[in-house]
Design brief:
alpha+beta, five-stranded antiparallel beta sheet, 32% helix
Length: 594
């Protein structure tokens, strides 16, 4: 079923790309795919060559071959003298040459196997040139300052280039690169080495989204190309850890990762897609094919827009006028790869499924997963820059409603200027559940607590306690607020209870508990005494705060807070205590769904 579904949507996406392919006007743009939101042709548009050819071969429709040929001509014109391609002008990053080359290698291989040899000459010429750049950049120069997904992909690319060109050096370099990559898979099965947009904490950074959407696919593909049993075994082990971050409705939890600033709920905006890795390893574990299909269903049912584009999340169409075409190109390429190189799903699972009420802890992530009846949650103290941390529930999910709470970047910053749009409405801060404090001109937050602790865990029942201190800002000049906190989380089948406890050592002007709730399109918000009620098609959500020194802010029911990544709209529930003297304070909050 998963393969039929993917083929249908690859065709649909290719039709959308066709509508935006440039046929007239500026000659240097002809054949490229124009993005309606960014008003440019993205450097990655050549990745659509492979899915176009896949649809031509499988459907026999000439329009797809004609489109692929025009795109090949466009990419020939864009290839630089050294064999590379720029990602997006005017920036000088050429690393995405890897992904363009990988897509071309897939097209070359598939066309040859399908008997369409006349289509491959121009493609092989581009591969031979880009292989030289890849060999120099990653095999000789060793660019160590980039993300791990590039290192893993470069190994797969060079092995493909060896098979296509016969240059033995490429295979030798690929072998060296894959050994380097394997050394970055830790004991828990997570891949370290993803940067965060600033280079901070880059030695141990982990990003679930990029690992699933890109790195693991390259690892699996290298294993398939070479027959290397050790690489395949490591790919399966790593995927066994990562697949737990596909939630029951297919959404991907990248709420705390080092590159979560591009988290879309179905994956990462500019990454390929988890279907590549999951389906290339599907014969090893039945959970992999199921996760691939669940994630595909989530994208199709929650994040597809009426005009055939993919949004940054379920409320994208309400926040933006025009959609970016980048995710459409990436997913079409990824699903085409999964369709052509995927395996028949296994009939067995190599790991036991999560218990209905359980906690699963990941020491290297300083994060745990909770399962309690219809509820699922991620609690994290991981500490990646600009991501959910400090013991926040970065993703709270219910089977009837989907996301109830989730995280966004602590401070929205366009560190990838072209791929991260301007905020479409007045920015009101993150939607991550958090604690904030103010003393004079100083502002403190639990989201700046990069060294928080998961203190107490009950594996046999869904409870956890986190602790930390409110801190100010990033970098080496952080101020200590002298406000320590613990949060005890207790889950039941009906809801979640959060018990906050604060130790205030010096007087503070305000201390706030901020608990945004994700809204569905038809949600009505009612303020009710010490809490609020949400009514929508999924049922009734009740949030209550304990009466006492913390009082619910006077917020109008129509007040909203938005996030671009992922694209959601929230109600900013907020409890505040003012003019606190030194002492110990407590606050209890509950969320129930009826």
């Amino acid at each position: 079923m998963i393969y039929e579904k993917m083929e249908h949507w690859i065709g649909s996406w290719c039709d959308t790309l066709l509508r935006h392919q440039v046929e007239e006007g500026l000659e240097s743009w002809r054949g490229g795919i124009l993005c309606p939101a960014c008003r440019r042709i993205h450097g990655r548009c050549g990745d659509a060559i492979f899915p176009m050819y896949v649809m031509f071969v499988r459907s026999g429709k000439e329009k797809y071959r004609a489109s692929a040929r025009r795109l090949v001509q466009y990419m020939q014109g864009q290839q630089l003298y050294d064999g590379s391609w720029l990602n997006d002008e005017p920036f000088d990053w050429k690393g995405t040459t890897l992904f363009q080359t990988l897509s071309l290698c897939h097209a070359y291989d598939y066309l040859n196997r399908s008997g369409h040899l006349s289509e491959t000459d121009a493609i092989k010429d581009m591969i031979e040139k880009s292989a030289q750049w890849t060999s120099w950049a990653f095999g000789e120069r060793n660019i160590r300052s980039t993300n791990m997904n590039y290192w893993m992909t470069s190994a797969a690319v060079l092995e493909w280039c060896f098979k296509i060109t016969g240059q033995a050096l490429y295979s030798e370099q690929a072998r060296s690169l894959i050994q380097y990559a394997l050394s970055h898979i830790n004991h828990d099965g997570f891949i370290i080495g993803e940067l965060d947009g600033t280079g901070l904490r880059s030695l141990d950074n982990i990003d679930i989204g990029y690992n699933m959407d890109m790195s693991l696919a390259a690892l699996a593909e290298y294993a398939e190309l070479t027959g290397d049993a050790r690489v395949r075994s490591e790919a399966v082990r790593a995927m066994g850890a990562h697949v737990n971050f596909i939630y029951p409705d297919g959404s991907m939890d990248n709420s705390f990762g080092s590159r979560s600033y591009k988290w879309t709920l179905f994956g990462s905006k500019t990454a390929h897609g988890c279907q590549m890795a999951l389906m290339m390893l599907a014969d090893q574990d039945s959970r992999f094919a199921q996760a691939a299909e669940d994630n595909a269903d989530y994208l199709i049912t929650r994040c597809m827009m009426e005009d055939g584009f993919i949004g940054n999340g379920p409320r994208h169409a309400e926040l933006f006028r025009e959609p970016c075409i980048h995710p459409l190109i990436n997913r079409a390429d990824a699903w085409a790869t999964a369709l052509i190189y995927g395996k028949a799903p296994a009939a067995h699972a190599s790991h036991a499924a999560a218990k209905p009420s359980s906690m699963q802890c990941y020491p290297s992530l300083r994060t745990c997963h909770v399962r309690s009846g219809p509820w699922a949650a991620t609690i994290t103290t991981y500490g990646a820059h600009n991501s959910a941390t400090g013991g926040a529930i970065s993703y709270l999910w219910h089977q009837k409603r989907g996301p109830v709470q989730l995280a966004s970047a602590t401070e929205y910053s366009r560190n990838e200027l072209i791929n991260m749009p301007e905020f479409p409405v007045p920015y009101k801060g993150p939607v991550t559940p958090r604690i904030e404090g103010r003393r004079g001109q100083n502002y403190f937050s639990s989201l700046y607590e990069y060294d928080g602790c998961l203190q107490e865990l009950h594996i046999d029942r869904p409870e956890a306690t986190v602790s930390g201190k409110l801190k100010s800002g990033d970098g080496f000049g952080q101020l200590d607020s002298h406000i320590a906190y613990t949060i005890h989380y207790r889950f039941t089948e009906h809801g979640i209870e959060k018990h906050y406890r604060f130790l205030v050592q010096f007087a503070v002007n305000t201390l706030s508990v901020i608990e945004p709730l994700v809204l569905l399109p038809d949600t009505e918000v009612t303020i009710a005494g010490d809490g609020l009620v949400l009514n929508d098609q999924s049922g009734v959500v009740r949030m209550r705060g304990e009466e006492g020194i913390f009082r619910m802010d006077d917020v109008h029911p129509d007040e909203r807070n938005s996030s671009i990544f992922p694209a959601v709209i929230c109600f900013p529930a907020h409890w505040k205590a003012v003019d606190l003297a030194p002492g110990i304070y407590e606050f209890k909050l509950s969320i129930f769904i009826e």
